[in-house]
Amino acid sequence: MLSFEVINELTLRVTCKGTDSLFVKKGAFIAGECMGQKNYTFEKILLGPQQDLGAALLGSLVRRVTGENIPLMKVNLNGNSVTYYANYGQHVIVYKLEQGETISVESENILAFTPDCDYNVRFIGVGVLSQKGLATTTLTARGSNSCVAVLSNGNPLIISNVETGASLAADPDAVICWVGRGHCDPSVTVDVSWKNLIGQHSGESYQFEWNPGNKVTVMIQPSERSGGISVSMD
To answer: How far is CA 119 from the centre of its chain?
Structure first.
């Protein structure tokens, strides 16, 4: 059995009791400890974490086409151990999914996840507007111990309308992930007018929006990816 814990905001500690495995961003291992000889190994993932070969092949193709590809490795844990993972000093956030719950996350923001998370890529159709691309990586819990560790450039902001029923909006280039059940993808609003053509745009021409009936929790980093569109005339 695995447990995820964040150490000093920047490191993921994974404690394994018995025999288990997990999927981690390639090259993210930084340290490990166990009694006796080292009892964990690393395995390169050629296609994807899906067990079915056909699904792995299709998933690999979709991820490459949509830009949601992420180099993963599988960590095989053969006994009690503690291993540590990090990525260039980025902040680490652990989210434990309830059974049937789905997290939609930017592939570059994935650090690690347990094998009882179903890994997939879903089209959301907003690639023309943002560096997020046409698809998002999804992880859906099919067990009671489904955990995901995500990365953020700085301490993230978390907003939710699950309790309040409020409408939510966020910059797509700052969104790390969103969590919900069923269909909880955002709509995209675009604000382009004649001012954009003369260089008077606000810099916030497009946004992700979730309506009050779309119950979701959104994680946002205080740093925008370079991307999006810029329409102006100098």
So the answer is: 11
All domains of the chain in start order, with CATH: 2-220 (3.60.160.10)
**How far apart, in whole angstroms, are the C-alpha atoms of residue 25 and residue 83?**
14
**Tokens representing 110?**
């994935």
For residue 81, the SS3 value is strand
Spatial CA neighbour of 91 closest among 158, 10, 28, 8: 10
Strand, coil or helix: 125: coil
Token couple for 70: 């992420």
pLDDT of amino acid 205: 62
**How many other C-beta atoms are found inside a 10 Å radius of the C-beta of residue 173?**
19
Q: How many H helices and E strands in the chain?
A: 2, 19
The more confident residue out of 79 and 67 is 79
Query: Does the pLDDT value for residue 61 go beyond 60?
Result: no
Which residues, other chains included, contact 7 with Cβ-Cβ below 8 Å and sequence gap of 6+? 13, 84
